[in-house]
Specification:
By secondary structure, the chain is of the alpha+beta class. 26% of the residues lie in helices and 27% in strands. It has two domains: 179 residues, C2 domain (Immunoglobulin-like, Sandwich); 150 residues, no CATH class.
Length: 342
């Protein structure tokens, strides 16, 4: 058995370098018609312009601040929900402007579906934490439009100040409180609530909670040193890819893993406990798989251009040696602590 396994491993390692990058890339996105994307950009721009005038009304800012604070996530609200809340909480007599924006949002979300965006929902973010505290009392608020282009290629973004078009740098947020209009970046508005860890975890072998004779490896703790998300889009949207090769033919298994706890991985240089029975755990028993597994950490962009950012990759390999319990490794801008229950 060991000789057969070694032969498979040698064969596998001979090709892994050539396929790893291909295996790790985000799934291909559908081809989108240029005219639909151009219309989507126009819709978002028009919404931002209209919203920049509306947000000068203190009643609307109070509604916005309340919605953000009560949002399941800490920095975002679906715009249609925000408009509906304002209509029934102090702005009943100013329905004309609200209904105009609501109609534009409906049109924009219909166009998102034509563009095959995975989450066709217009959201408003207050991405800078300090800005959320200033909304109610500020006499000036900017409303920006998140870029639909690849984020790394964008140096400035369009914004509006009470209907006046301005430009903001993506390198540093302005001191003026700023809202950002953008396509939703996650399918769910529900947050994850992972536990933050104050100190670096040690690799002492734990008593595994998995039990039984299952041979599985997963990520139990995660730390990100650079989330590859600009201030414009606020909290990152983290997901994982787990790469394995199944015997006897070294069949590639490339799985995207998204689960609730990852929605709460929002701060850099902080360890998060994801729990030891989360969906990142995968079978790696040596009778059925090459003794090699790759964990890739990705940050999802808005979905308008499909340019997700690779945060880091960590590879674990074991053959002819014991590999149980916890192990902590670094790769790129991520560190993970894995747990194997043999």
């Amino acid at each position: 058995m060991y000789r057969r396994m070694s032969c498979h491993l040698v064969r596998f390692l001979g090709v892994v370098a050539g396929v790893a990058l291909l295996a790790g890339g985000p799934l291909a996105t559908p081809v989108r018609a240029d005219r639909n994307m151009a219309q989507l950009a126009n819709d978002l721009d028009a919404i931002a312009s209209q919203l920049s005038s509306l947000v000068m009304d203190n009643r609307f800012r109070v509604s916005l601040s309340k919605q953000i604070k009560e949002s399941p996530r800490r920095d975002v609200s679906a715009l249609r929900d925000l408009v509906g809340f304002a209509l029934t909480n102090g702005m009943e007599n100013d329905s004309g402007r609200l209904l105009t924006i609501a109609a534009r949002v409906e049109q924009c979300e219909a166009n998102m579906k034509l563009c095959a965006l995975p989450n066709p929902r217009v959201e408003v973010k207050v991405p800078v934490a300090a800005h959320r505290e200033l909304l109610n009392d500020s006499d000036q608020v900017y409303v920006a439009v998140a870029p639909l282009e690849e984020e790394s290629e964008v140096k400035s973004i369009t914004a509006y100040s009470n209907g006046k078009r301005i430009s903001l740098s993506v390198a540093e947020p302005p001191k003026i409180p700023t809202l950002v209009v953008l396509p939703a970046e996650t399918a769910s508005e529900e947050p994850g609530i992972p536990t933050k860890i104050n100190a670096d975890p040690n690799d002492d072998e734990p008593e595994s909670a998995l039990g039984g004779n299952d041979d599985r490896v997963g990520i139990v703790r995660l730390l990100i040193t650079d989330d590859h998300e600009s201030w414009v889009c606020g909290d990152p949207e983290i997901y994982l890819r787990v790469i394995r090769w199944q015997l006897p033919n070294c069949r590639l298994i490339n799985e995207r893993v998204s689960f609730g706890a990852l929605n709460g991985v929002n701060d850099e240089d902080v360890w998060y406990y994801l729990n030891d029975q989360n969906p990142s755990y995968k079978y790696v028993d040596t009778a059925g798989y090459i003794p090699y597994i790759q964990f890739q950490v990705w940050e999802s962009d808005s979905g308008a251009h499909g340019g997700d950012d690779h945060v880091g990759t960590i590879t674990l390999q074991w053959t002819g040696q014991s590999f149980t319990g916890y192990t902590t490794r670094s790769g790129g801008d991520a560190r993970i602590q894995t747990d194997r229950d043999p």
